[in-house]
Design goal:
By secondary structure, this protein is an alpha/beta fold. It has 2 domains: 34-67 and 346-454, Aspartate Aminotransferase, domain 1; 72-344, Aspartate Aminotransferase, domain 2 (3-Layer(aba) Sandwich), CATH 3.40.640.10. Helices cover 37% and strands 17% of the residues. It has helices spanning 3-17, 25-28, 57-60, 69-79, 93-105, 119-137, 157-161, 166-169, 202-214, 240-250, 303-308, 329-344, 347-362, 401-411, 433-454; strands at 36-40, 43-46, 51-54, 110-116, 144-148, 179-182, 218-223, 227-228, 234-235, 254-258, 282-285, 297-302, 371-377, 380-388, 393-394, 414-415, 422-425. The strands form 4 sheets. The protein has a 7-stranded mixed sheet with strand order 4-12-11-10-7-5-6, sandwiched between helices. It has a 4-stranded mixed sheet with strand order 1-2-3-16. Strands 13, 14, 15 and 17 form a 4-stranded antiparallel sheet that branches. A hairpin with a 2-residue loop joins strand 13 (371-377) and strand 14. Helix 5 (93-105) packs across helix 12 (329-344), helix 13 runs parallel beside helix 15 (433-454) and helix 14 crosses helix 15 (433-454). The chain is globular, with a radius of gyration of 22 Å. The N and C termini lie far apart (46 Å). The structure holds pyridoxal-5'-phosphate. Residues 118-120, 123, 152-154, 224, 229-230, 258, 260-261, 286-287 line the site of pyridoxal-5'-phosphate.
């Protein structure tokens, strides 16, 4: 078989056998599949040898770029010892070392590490812990959760129950457990119709009234700190997070912070909750945990929560939860190497100049006729495209505006994925200034071209 026909073969098989996540396959099969074969640094290369900037860190998880030597080597070293061994019963070296490391870098007090393999499971674990904590404490009515509109915590049925994105979560509503949704502090489209300048965080008052009326029945509040990712890269106003922490304390409700996206430097701090000196009762981590190499997640809890599960074997207070690949040695070894890079390359110290640079460069987007809102938190940025800036009228879903901008960007060598009509920019932190320039230039041009075609 010649090279050409093999590539065509792969494209055919992809359409024939693969069902892609979050993808309308009827549209997908009309396009030529982009088949990535290799990558290096911030670049991905397809089977034709064409290069693309990885503008969304391979779905928000890659931190140090691809084929990062230190992580590659750590995995190879571990592979020469053992690939997988269970944590149900025995333990293993990388899992122990990583747990210690996570407890050391986490906000003070989060000292117990429970592993799983993805963000959804990390949150399932967190919610089961919170629920059962109150059962063990004798407050058996505390069975419900509070979450935010536009929130996203995963795609399993439990995490969808606390999800707040109507188009993802609406269809499965009959399957969910009871959740109270509080308004999201989405300032560009304030759900309370207020102006951020003088609202005094009225959304916290709404949250308070939910907690006040229902706290007897509420186990925990779960939310994404500082930035709601999949809901549209909604950047929260200062004070919202610390305000939430205070309210949860006041009403005896546990706070679960989902740092699956925001963890490991994405927002400029190791964890987003550090921006407001908030310590949750439970914190969940996944995407960036090992630099985006392989599935791994962790749920961190306080001693207080951990201790509630201790008792005699026959008391059945055990936390009956665990996944087959829990604490996988390869994933943990990669994570340890990633942690090592944070120290060796002074990542958090170096991020600040990059964040500033991104902020300066994003100003250029204000001149685009259809860039309604430009948001940034650390190295996470988003541009909300609107049909009409003055009225904030959104694009019609039928226009597939975000997808069309992405297809244009792809032509120009940038791989991105939209959230509806919201364009996301989230490169690996290791991106250099001139590469960031190229990314933003392509993004700018793609938005300009596609939005002009439409109007
Ligand atoms: C991606 C994401 C999840 C889900 O993680 P998966 O690994 O895709 O299951 C949960 N919470 C947040 C904030 C996320 O961004």
């Amino acid at each position: 078989m010649t090279q050409k026909t093999y590539q065509e073969q792969l494209q055919t098989w992809d359409k024939q056998y693969l069902w892609h996540p979050f993808t309308q396959m009827q549209d997908y099969i009309k396009e030529t599949p982009l088949i990535i074969e290799e990558g290096s640094g911030i670049f991905l290369k397809d089977i034709d040898g064409k290069e693309y900037i990885d503008g969304i860190s391979s779905m928000w998880c890659n931190l140090h770029g691809h084929r990062k030597k230190e992580i590659d080597d750590a995995i190879k070293r571990q592979l020469d010892k053992i690939a997988h061994t269970t944590l149900l019963g025995p333990t293993n070296i990388p899992a122990i070392e990583l747990a210690k490391k996570l407890a050391e870098i986490a906000p003070q007090g989060l000292t117990k590490v429970f592993y799983s393999d993805n963000g959804s499971t990390a949150n399932e674990v967190a919610m089961k812990m919170a629920f059962q904590y109150w059962q063990h404490k004798g407050l058996k009515a505390k069975t419900q959760f509070v979450a935010l509109q536009h929130g996203y915590h995963g795609d399993t049925i439990g995490t969808m129950s606390v999800g707040g994105i109507e188009i993802f979560h609406g269809a499965f509503r009959p399957l969910y457990f009871k959740t109270h949704l509080a308004p999201s502090p989405y300032c560009y489209r304030c759900p309370l119709g207020k102006q951020p300048k003088n609202c005094s965080l009225a959304c916290l008052e709404e949250l308070e009234s939910i907690l006040k009326d229902n706290s007897r029945g509420i186990a925990a509040m779960i939310m994404e700190p500082m930035v709601q990712g999949a809901g549209g890269m909604i950047v929260h106003p200062a004070g919202y997070l610390s305000g939430t922490r205070a309210l949860c304390k006041k009403y005896n409700v546990l706070l679960i912070l989902d740092e699956v996206l925001t963890g490991f430097g994405r927002t400029g701090r190791m964890f987003a909750c550090l921006h407001e000196n908030v310590v949750p009762d439970i914190m969940t981590l996944s995407k960036g945990i090992n630099g985006g190499y392989m599935p791994l997640a962790a749920t961190l809890a306080t001693e207080e929560i951990y201790h509630a599960f201790l008792g005699k074997y026959a008391d059945l207070k055990t936390f009956f939860h665990g996944h087959t690949y829990t604490g996988n040695p390869l994933g943990c070894a990669a994570a340890l190497a990633s942690m090592g890079l944070f120290e060796k390359e002074h990542i958090l110290e170096n991020l600040e100049t990059k964040i500033q640079y991104l902020q300066t460069r994003l100003k250029q987007f204000e001149s685009l006729e259809h860039a309604g809102d430009i948001r940034q938190c650390g190295l996470i940025a988003a541009i909300e495209l609107v049909k009409d800036k003055s009225t904030k009228e959104p694009y019609d879903w039928k226009e597939r505006i975000g997808i069309r901008v992405c297809l244009e960007a792809r032509k120009q060598g940038l791989l991105i994925r939209p959230l509806g009509h919201i364009m996301v920019i989230m490169p690996p932190w290791s991106i250099k200034e001139h590469e960031l320039d190229r990314l933003l230039n392509i993004m700018y041009e793609s938005v300009r071209i596609v939005t002009q075609e439409t109007t």
